[in-house]
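Problem 12. The chain below contains 177 residues. Write out its predicted structure in token notation.
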Amino acid sequence: MKKNNVYYLVEGAMIAALYIALTYAQELLLPGTTSMAIQFRLSEILCLLALFTPSAIWGLTVGTLVSNLISVGVMPMDLLFGTLATFVAVTLVRKLKDIRWFSLPILSSLMPAVINGIIIGLELEIFLIEGPFHISSFLLQGGMVALGEFVVCVVFGLPFYKLLDHLNLFNKLHESI
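Solution.
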């Protein structure tokens, strides 16, 4: 295995561990805030790490899966749908990283809100809400999920991105390999 491959494997594992630790700590301090209808998972801010490194894609996907496995309030279907939503969202964050408005990756930072709103909104409407599918109920469920993601990934996430970009941390780390 090449040195770069090992580095990206370790980097992704560290991102996964950080995501799990942040999610678990938040759930201990503020029970239910990481898995209720209006999710406010602060660890989702780490989705923006995909702007800096491709290893964030698999790291955050694994981190979400493990966090959902150990979280008390998570529905069993969230193991599949939550993990899928994270994978798709973070992949899009990475793919759209060069599209900037006002020198900010606004479109990328919106992806976790949009994708989780759709996928988790559908999951909640289909598996949690009794009765037939209603578009208004889906929009409400998805909107609540998207709102929490928007606050974390856009409102808090863009300043977080600017800080990491200013520190040039990932470029320094990647240059050292």
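Discussion. The CA atoms of residues 24 and 67 lie 7 Å apart. Students who got a different answer should revisit the alignment rule from Section 12.3.
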